[in-house]
Design goal:
With 486 residues, the protein is an alpha+beta fold. It contains 15 helices and 12 strands. Strands 2, 6, 7, 8, 9 and 10 form a 6-stranded antiparallel sheet that branches. Strands 1-3 form a two-stranded antiparallel sheet. Strand 9 and strand 10 form a beta hairpin. It starts with 15 loop residues before the first strand and ends in a 29-residue tail after the last helix. Bound molecules: adenosine monophosphate and magnesium ion (MG).
Length: 486
Amino acid sequence: MFHFDNSYARLPDRFYASVYPEPVEGPKLLKFNEKLAGELRIEVDLSDPDRLAATLAGNVVPQGATPLAMAYAGHQFGNFVPQLGDGRAILLGEVIDEHGMRRDIQLKGAGPTPFSRRGDGRAALGPVLREYVVSEAMAALGIPATRALAAVATGEQVYRETVEQGAVFVRVAASHVRVGTFQFFAARGDNDGIKALADYVIDRHYPELKTAENRYAALLQAVAFRQAELIARWLGVGFVHGVMNTDNMTISGETIDFGPCAFLDEYHQMKVFSSIDHGGRYAYRNQPGIGQWNIARLAECLLPVIDEDQDKAVDVANTVLKEFGERFQTAWIAVFRAKLGLQTEVDGDGELVQNLLSVMQEAEADFTLVFRGLADAADGADERFLAQFSDPSKAAEWLKSWRERLAQEGEADAGRADAMHAVNPAVIPRNHRIQEAISAANYGDFSFFERLLQALEKPYEERPEFADYMTPPTPDERVTRTFCGT
Ligand code: AMP
Ligand code: MG
């Protein structure tokens, strides 16, 4: 079924623990992503869903798999933990997709591993469905993210704050190497390990750097740039990751670990959803700063291999950290210029965006609908934009300043509304809809989950049959807190 070629398993023993999934009582296929399976050249017999479920739940280990739990460390809310590792995720192996790209197939919730600490190695249905929905929504929005291949019920209970149904999430990633993977070796003073890991990720994710004069310095810069660009994309769709610990930041530049994440409904730059993020460390607007902080932790790991002369290595690292800030700014303004329908660059564009965001924040306006409405306004239909503001006078004033700016665009007017609709989504995975899908699924009704997935397939289109997925929550539908995906 899978054509495995497992490069991570060929790394030295200390990179991982070999471990088999722990079979579950009653595997049942909840959702299988056929389209993605096709891209991954996975051959499945859909006429035998029980066998497929048994494989995806880890009961039957497919031929060619070399199941393992990856070792990693990480800063969790700023505190360093020298050993985390896959405590409930098992990497089955890697496949080469139709574009020749190597992708990990991982079972999340497949049972205990040597890294489980006090955890049970399992995942609950709710968080599995949340990760399924949000990762597929991200992909449809065009934002790099790990993907969902399947969700399988285990037929077992898991004990969290309450008793919940167990499930396994089958995750696909460009790789699961994280900033925390480097930290694992750095914490042990294992420079050979750092070098081997760096060479591995250059080979896998940044092959163009192989010939760089200083490949490890180049790697640090390349990872920094991908993360800066990724975070700019998050801000462009109002995404709050929620738990940007260094073990939840990939080296590939894909968004990973959709736990207490959420998309903004009403805009506030300090919005936090995670029930455990008391200080707002991972609030919406703190994300670029935290990204840079995480890259600084990666830089510390790479110092010994960047240059024998540590003063020189520190200079390199500091330069990259500065460049991260610049690259983020460039990416951010590019994202928001596109959202505003601007094709040229004029000084003061950043201020124009900030002014809009201030008016939105003051009015608690819906992030998604404001920008969607602005795209309509490019065609002269201001109603939807203005309707997002309880007192539209400031918004109307801002529209005027926007139109003055558009006048400077020259002849680029034609097609502006279309271009704006193509970057300002109509449908995002709103929290109350995810909650609704999870609640129904907990009672065995997956129709809300299915319909939500369908609505999110074409986020830039307004399809009348999914109009109800565009509306923000009513006050009593509002979800203010999401919980860690454990
Ligand atoms: P996460 O919050 O999912 O990013 O996980 C942080 C760390 O806790 C990772 O090392 C996970 O493997 C581990 N972990 C989370 N939940 C469990 C669980 N139920 N059993 C064992 N380990 C877990
Ligand atoms: Mg994690």
